[in-house]
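Re: that chain you flagged

S.,

Sorry for the slow reply, it's been a week of failed gels. I finally had a moment to sit down with the sequence you sent. For the record, here it is as I used it:
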Amino acid sequence: MEKKGYEPNVITCGTIVNGLCKTGQTGVAIRLLRMLEKENFEQNVVLYSMVIDSLCKDRLVTEALNLLSEMTSKGIQPDVVTYNSLVQGLCNFGRWREVTTLLNEMGQRKVMPDVQTFNILVNTLCKERMLIEAKEVFDVMIQRGIDPNIVTYGSLIDGYCLQNRLDEAVKTFNMMVEKGCSTGVVSYNILINGYCKSKKIDEAKRLFHEMSNKGMIPNVVTYNTLIGGLCRVERVQTALELFNTMRACGQHPDPQTYAILLDDFFKNRRIAEAIALFLEMEDKRLNCDIVIYSILIDGFCNVGELTTAREIFSGLKGLYLDVWTYTIMIKGFCKNGLLDKASELLEKMDGNGCSPNEHTYNIIIHGFLQHRETSKAMKYLKMMVDKGFSTNATTAALFIDLLSSNQVDENIQELLRKFG
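Prediction finished late last night. Pasting the structure tokens below so you have them in one place:
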């Protein structure tokens, strides 16, 4: 462009900065910004806002705040878009004092918060289970004449559902309807999920039918939520009927749908149906991810089919094995008394760059204690404590039983008291 004698303008540079930020190349975008500064190129709020947003998404919020200070010192006034990025970044880290400071600064600069600002605050507060504060923000929003949208209401409904305050969730849902705010599939899904988690399946089903009566088409999330809820209250046959209805309506089950049913089949020892369902997944060439294989391994371990579980685990080539999958296999070995195999796998797991977590250590310690291998259990207890983890209630109870018995020598008793 420059060779042909054309001078890049602010739109050209903005487009490049935007592209770099969107592809995660924030460092390159900053270097370009610095280069433009040196050449006394016209700077504007849009360029800085793009980079600030990208820094916040990279979790570099302090650096983003520094860039805000630098920007204002040059006389470039931040706008609501700039502040929204920073508010979101600070909220993600629970830096509430700085959020308050930033909101006050917005007021001083006469930058009015918009619906997006309030949505960020309501959503984060709800996720942090700070419902009183979220409702206060919601009320301030209305007082200022800013109409809540489907995102605002959805966040509040989800927040109430998380705390099992379903009456208030329904009240908020009805308020949304009264205010003429479109109640989409997502809003129904949130409320259906709340009912399912509280095992109020009939209410969830009522909402599901209400959706259809209003001409809404339930999506795969709706079906998965309701199928999962039905399985949770052991209404497997109804869940299967809904699974078939889903397919008949042209809604294709996804791996999550199959995962829910597979897990339930194994829990109810319906092995033949579980295998048939997995084969159906393969026939449909659905992506069988690590979650599906972990359910299979866990299922076969729990029904005593350790050989099959080991074969599946050993055959997982090309898939990243996460801590959950390793822990499931370790649990299977412990359950079947193969403690050496459990120890080998734990060491292999660490060597493969997948560090055992608190649950992994509790599982292996529990296994050794159940088979009265106290010294080896103590070895793993020390490793666990050194990593900053603690025993769960089941493991702690086994240690208390050991302390109250005379089945361990004095050295181990002294160690147990130390860790207790």
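What I noticed first: The CA atoms of residues 56 and 62 lie 9 Å apart.

Talk soon,
D.
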